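ingest -> validate -> predict -> emit
validate: passed (alphabet ok, no gaps, 224 aa)
predict: started
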Amino acid sequence: MTAGPPPESEAGDGRHRQSAGVGRQREVPTLMEQMGGVQGVVASTIPVAVFVVANVIAGLQPALISAIAAGVLVAIWRIARKQPLQPAVSGLFGVGIAAFIAYRTGEARGFYLPGLLLSAVGLLAFLVSVLVRWPLAGVIWHGINGDGQSWRKDPRMLRAYTLASLLWAAVFAARVVVQGWLYNADQETLLGIARLAMGYPLFGVALLGTIWAVRRARRSPSPA
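emit:
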């Protein structure tokens, strides 16, 4: 006996579930798109890598020129590929500020000072957000994806984003401790290497931890 078409309610539910599934699958790509995709994320580390190598080989002044030139080339490359303009401009601006500080101080370690200060600000922001029960991981995630902030009414999601925010705080704390120690010790080359190693690799770990916590919360049963 041939089964007839599903009732309208079931079909509607199916379409709703499919639409919701697509929406959830779009969350991660949307977040990455804000940074120019995977290629854009990798490309943003190029000026720092160029500075580290050039500083070891040729000294501070050539390293500053090389880093700025690399930042300009990365921005042009992003624009040519029709990637979002904001990451290109922000990346070039960040390189320019870092180079200016290093030039004014006459020390290569000054190039890494803005990143170190931003890590300290990030650590404080995520910790405060947890204390006031507005975990920043959730605020940023849903803000970027345009989902609103209604997730705070769900205890499961609030708990998940609290854990995710603590993970992000740990990442920033690690950067502050390690890179701060190298900065004070005037270990310029090791500081540059630490900046690269503790940049997007740790960012990726925190992002994966956020995704895992949220998906686990969604699968857990609703509280009675």
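DSSP finds ten helices and no strands in the chain.
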